[in-house]
Amino acid sequence: MSSYQTAPYTHFHELIDTWTKHAQSIETQAKNLSEKARVLGTPSDTPEIRTRLDEDERRLHNLATKTKTVLKELADEMIKRKKELSRNDLDMVTKVRTAMNNALKNYEDVITSISKRRQQFQPTTNDTLIDLGNANLSEDDIHQRLQLQQQMKISNNLLVQQNEEQFAIEEQVQLVQADVIEINHMMRDIGAIVSEQSPIIANVEQNVSAANDHIIAGNQQLLGASRHQKKYRKKLCWLLLIFLVIALIVAIVIIIKLKA
């Protein structure tokens, strides 16, 4: 609430704060995810690592989903209280939009980069296929053929796993792209409200400024009139005093003549 000391803390400001936190969280989580993804294709690359990356990606997607809910509510709130929005409110929206745009770009870049690394560094098996050639089926040959069948089964399972992972990667990228597109659409709607309200607020501010100028000019005129009135009263007092002095002198002269 400290950010809005000059104005009441409303639901609008609460949504702005939540939006700001989401933008910061998306930025932070995307950065952490990028750091963790560096192990892909290294000796430390394991199925457990990839599972944890999947979980982190899902958390990031869930955060993006929550952000969409906040933005929808914020857009509704801005439409509802259009006439109450101040210049400071619009500036806050613009500032958070910029932060969210940067966070979304990093979010999309990180997921795209991870998907490419996943495709580039597919997990492989250390088992090697045994080539039987044209050897006769001795007991050893049968044993080797059984080994071959087992290895082929492992390879097939690995291929299925790789296909499933590839599908999951493509699905995750599509989710991210959908998140980014939808959030961008919502932010454009909010930006349209800001653009619509900016001239109105500018006009109101101009009218308020003009009114203040008129008030100041009026006060100055009143002050000037008050000064003129004081000067007029002062002059009037002097004139009355002079008149009284003259009248007194005339009266004295008349009295002296009458006595004489």
From TrEMBL:
The keyword Protein transport does not apply. Residues 171-225 form the T-SNARE coiled-coil homology domain. GO terms for cellular component: endomembrane system; SNARE complex. The chain crosses the membrane at residues 236-256. Keywords: Membrane, Transmembrane, Transmembrane helix. GO terms for molecular function: SNAP receptor activity; SNARE binding. This is t-SNARE coiled-coil homology domain-containing protein. It comes from Rotaria sordida.
